[in-house]
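INTERNAL AUDIT FORM
Audit reference: QA-55
Scope: verify that the stored structure record matches its stored sequence.
Auditor: D.O.
Record contents follow.
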Amino acid sequence: MQITPAEVAETMAMVTKQNLDIRTITLGLNLRGCTHEDVGVVASKVYDRMASAAERLVPTAEQLEREFGIPIVNKRISVTPIAEVAAATSAHDLSPIALAMDRAAKEVGVDFVGGFSALVQKGASAADHKLMDSIPEALASTDFVCSSVNLGSTRAGINMDAAWKMAGVIKRCAELTADRECIGAGKLVVFCNAVEDNPFMAGAFHGSGEADEVINVGVSGPGVVRAVLADMPKDADLTEISEAIKATAFKITRAGELMAREASRRLGYAQGILDLSLAPTPARGDSVANILEEIGVGTCGGPGTTAALALLNDAVKKGGVMASSSVGGLSGAFIPVSEDAGMIRAAEAGALSIEKLEAMTCVCSVGLDMIAVPGDTDVETILGIIADECAIGMINNKTTAVRLIPAIGKKPGDTLNFGGLLGYAPVMPVNQHAGSVFARRGGRIPAPLNSLKN
């Protein structure tokens, strides 16, 4: 489909009045050619590959911003899961590779780099264990590196041994960066059913089925959707609300399709996916929670919130898939607490709890995201939260995730202030009744019956 002048004019109004932006252009890179038995050589190869391939990424994105007038908030790189790249090395500490990734990110000017990652849903190799053990030091010693570990899938079940290990890693990441608002844990996410073409952080990595270089684009636009709903009559029924969201999602996705097409053409890299997720920011009006309240929920987190979110997520997907033949990634609505001004307000008011957020993750993209919990939350409790969220993803054949931030030295009512897109997070109370027996049993929760699809 061609993009018309009328669409361009309408998009400009969305940008200037309703916070429409392209949330990220993410360059996915294959690093499998960087293997070597010496971790120093691996790190050097990784730096060279990233610095060379991404040399023109930021200038190209900035040129597109100037030409089309649509802000591109982040420029990012995702790479092959480092546990795979480092499989041949004899070193136990893989943090030198993370340092090389960070240095390359600063050299080319990107905002984040993802892929210090491992996929352990069915079992963990020696390299996977090295990667997981290296995460706390790697994230504490870098500025832009993000990490993810896939702990389960509908096909494989949930690797509870790895989940237990990662619960401790999350706590350790927070402890090592306690002087920086525990940001180490904010750059780490654990998944069930992780996707291999996700352009968003902290979970982006470059999957094995991808080309050597791929441009993936993540759009946004909660403010646009909210503005459309705010102009609708209060007696509009929910079918009309859904249709309005679908039409708006189509327009938002068309803007992303234009930018994705142009970025891949100018860089000479394959055009990957367009992730049409509604990704909020701390900016006023740019909030998924505000959309739910415009639909009619009193305060986000109150009764009706999960149903309203289900409607929103479904309508976004239906509208977006008509605008591009390359929709992928996660695509839906994100509900990160610290990055959404409406979610922050609802959490501070006591309307939004972790348990309600867990229910909401059954019907939206990803999961428990950017949630600060008391610093004395024990590892057994963190493991329980991870297991519950992974179970939702496994049984429902969807991507779910946990990005918890133990706020070291803080209690409910305190805050962590990250600044920028990451916003600030009120420390939320946590159910303290996790059992130690369940957490330490280990093994694997078997795959559900609906995994037998062949």
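Auditor finding: record pair retrieved intact. The radius of gyration is 21 Å.
Action required: none
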